[in-house]
Amino acid sequence: MPSTTSAQAGSLLLMSREDNCLIARLDLKAGDTVVIDDRTVILPGDVRLGHKVARRDLAPGDKIVRYGAIIGTATSRIAAGAHIHTHNLESDYIPTYTLEQDGHHFIGSKAP
Amino acid sequence: MTTIATLADVALTGFPRADGRKGIRNVVVVAYLVECAHHVARLIAGAFPGQPVHLIGFPGCYPNEYADTIMRRVLTHPNVGAALLVSLGCESFDKNGVAKAVADSGRPVHTVTIQDVGGTRAGVKGGVEWVQWAVEDLARQERVPMRPDELVVATICGGSDSTSGITANPAVGAAFDRLIAAGSACIFEETGELVGCEFHMKRRAVTPELGDEIVRTVEKASRYYTIMGHGSFAPGNADGGLTTLEEKSLGAYAKSGASPISGILKPGDLPPTGGLYLLDVVPDGEPRFGFPNIADNAEIVELIACGAHVTLFTTGRGSVVGSAISPVIKVCANPATYERLADDMDVNAGRILTGHAGIEDVGTEIVDLIARVANGACTKSEDLGHQEFILTYKQFEPIGPGCLPLKAA
């Protein structure tokens, strides 16, 4: 059941002032209310501990910034509060290898 | 908080070696020199449960200069007191050269050649008799005082997730800064996991030439991994919230702390002074023998070959490994992982994420634990009997002229 009391400032962690993503400090559920820069946002999906959410609306081609440094490029539109991961962010260096239920995949346009 | 004083205040002790270094363990190593001798070596080491007898080895039959160097460095590591070499007899490994290097280091060494002594049973019998003698001989050695500047501490991350870069890695960085202030040498590594951090590292180099070498080293790693078609990134990293290699890199980089970078080492190079060193683990030349390091323990072996007495292993997903020869301290980044794997974890850095401790507090805890482990306290992985070891084929050229600016001319 979505939590309505988790809007505490502490559920998302900002690593660096210039970042456009935030880190979940605990497992969050779709429907949970979080506060992002004084705005109340209802999470559209689950976000597990350590995973990233968008701090603001992002467009394809936007650089994602964590620790004040670029960690890759957005591949689709990402709304504030949405989960940022391999489905909408790719490396500017080397494709990311993942293991899914149906086998293994390389994520990213540079994949072989 | 005065942890520099803590390390200086704790009376460190170690076993003195002929080369002037001191060991924090007194291990008898049983080393097979080809996979064909592995079983005999395992039976020999297995006859000494609960005793400081560690099994290591090299599987290949073809010669390799890198493997030869690492084997010599590891067998003459200060934590090693004696070595038994187990040879099939027809392999290429330079067993006589290695035996001479160990003997020249003042350590007892013996070689069992299975084909010469009459096979498996005779090989095991002779090996067990010699190790029994060596264990009793080493048990008579006593510890002597050891200074912080005689200590070498390494760090590695494995099974990283998104919490690694928030909790455990910065805490190790804080510990590194204190150890370095006390005179210790600290080594961080995996240039393939520092892709994207090269220009920041360059600014921390003690000379401009070293800064340029750091950038070249990371460019080499990036090129190598690109040719391999695979970054240093495992499915568990993605499951744990890390999306890209550069995101993993930035989190991993936090392990290095804030001290100036004093030099670059390659596997088997010893840090010439205290301070912070970057270990270049990516082979030179065209990719030849496969991935730079096939698993975390291959990197731990290279850190040990550089003289590391103890390795700080940060993990978010929860690696359980230890190592032969040098103790591994497991620093767990993720509070949920710590709850599941507490038996395997030495430090709960996840307390930083839950707001129960600061980065500096956990850094203090790590430095204090290093001092206790140096004096003989068992780490979790030692207590559980973990003695992983991997040595494979690689190719390196000597480090460039700008890599160790602090080395006495």
3D architecture notes:
The complex is a heterodimer of chains A (112) and B (409). Chain A is built from no helices and eleven strands. Chain A is mostly beta strands. In chain A, the strands form four sheets. In chain A, strands 1-2-5-8 form a four-stranded antiparallel β-sheet, with no helix packed on it. Mean pLDDT of chain A is 83; it is low at 1-9 and 108-112. Chain B contains 15 helices and 14 strands. Chain B has 409 residues and is an alpha/beta fold. In chain B, the strands form three sheets. Chain B has a seven-stranded parallel β-sheet with strand order 10-11-9-8-12-13-14, sandwiched between helices. Chain B has a four-stranded parallel β-sheet with strand order 4-3-5-6, with helices on both faces. The chains are: A mainly beta (112), B alpha/beta (409). The interface between A and B is medium-sized, with 36 and 34 residues.
Secondary structure elements and pairings:
The complex is a heterodimer of chains A (112) and B (409).
Chain A lengths: L11 E2 L7 E4 L8 E4 L2 E4 L9 E3 L8 E4 L2 E6 L8 E2 L4 E2 L5 E5 L2 E5 L5
Antiparallel strand pairs in A: 1-2, 2-5, 3-4, 5-8, 6-7, 7-9, 10-11
Chain B lengths: L2 H7 L2 E5 L5 E2 L3 E6 L5 H9 L6 E5 L7 H11 L4 E8 L7 H10 L4 E5 H4 L2 H20 L4 E3 L5 E6 L10 H14 L3 E5 L8 H7 L3 H21 L6 H5 L5 H9 L7 E5 L9 E5 L16 H10 L4 E6 L12 E5 L2 H7 L5 E2 L10 H16 L5 H4 L26
Parallel strand pairs in B: 3-4, 3-5, 5-6, 8-9, 8-12, 9-11, 10-11, 12-13, 13-14
Antiparallel strand pairs in B: 1-2, 1-7
